[in-house]
Structures are given as structure tokens and as C-alpha cells.
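@channel sequence for tomorrow's demo:
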Amino acid sequence: MLKLTLRHLFTLTSLALTGTIGYGQPAQAFTISLDGSPVSGVYNYGITLDAGESVAAGEDLILFNLSNETDSSQITVTGSSFYNVITADSTSASLEAINYLAGANSFSPAFTITTTGFLDGGEYLAFSTQGVTPTSSLGSLPLSSSVAVTFESSPVLGLLLVGTLASFLHFRPKPK
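C-alpha cells (generated this afternoon):
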């Protein structure tokens, strides 16, 4: 009787893991990427949206903690036909979307950062819409065109995965 109950627990854990992976909340799809390699301190950035996501006119993109290797006062941010610069100084900028972009789509260049030397770092806070829900994305500006894609997970998913693996190893058929 106990083995039957533990087998049910294993089955339920497997089903929960499958359901969590299959129907979990998608990661935020708003991404900023560097277009090519920077040339003479000019960094052109593009944005990419996933299906069901949109950026409407008036939604903001905030750049902050901008720095370069020598003198942060030598950083300038310029907009494009997609984002207009509202305010900017040497370490931050506030941009506002002036066009509408929706679905699995991208726009490049969305904005440009020009600096003497190399850009040393920067972060962004972007506002967009996922379906009808306003969302925000927080991240670091890529400093090179090859950026590793991170896998975002939750502690619950990790525990389910470990529990499923442990149950599988414990209750697998043993050779006779």
C-alpha cells in the first residue's frame, strides 16, 4: 500500500513538473541587443519583442548607470525613429516610444550611445505591454554583440525537478 502511494506521488510530481514547464508564465520577451560590434565608441541598440507583446507610443525606456572606461561625462544618448530622447545626461537617459511595435518583431537601431573609449556598463528599465497587461523589464545593456541567454527558473520548479529525479531513481524497476 505504501509503495502504491509513493508511486502516485511520483506520478503527481511528474505531472506537476510537466504542467509547470508547459503552462508556466513566459519570461519577459522585451530584449535589447547590440547591433554588430561598436565602432569608434558608437553603440547601436535594437529591441526585440515576442508574440503578444507590444510597445506603444508614449511608453518609456530608461537608461541608467551608464559609464565608460575613462570619463562618464563623455557619454551621449541619441534616439531614432522609434525612441525619442526626453532627458539625458552623462549617466542616464529617459526615452519615449514615438511609434507602435507589436508581436514577434524587432526594431533597429532603437537608440544609440556614443562614448569616448569603451562603454563600461549600463542598465535599462523598459515599459511594454504583454497582451493587455502593462509590464516592465529590467536588465543590463549588452556591451558586446554575443550575449548569453539566461534561463530563468523559480525555486518551485527546481524543487519539482529534484523531487521528480529523486522519485524516479528511487522507484525505477530494479534488475532481479
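heads up for whoever presents: Residues 2-25+155-171 form one domain.
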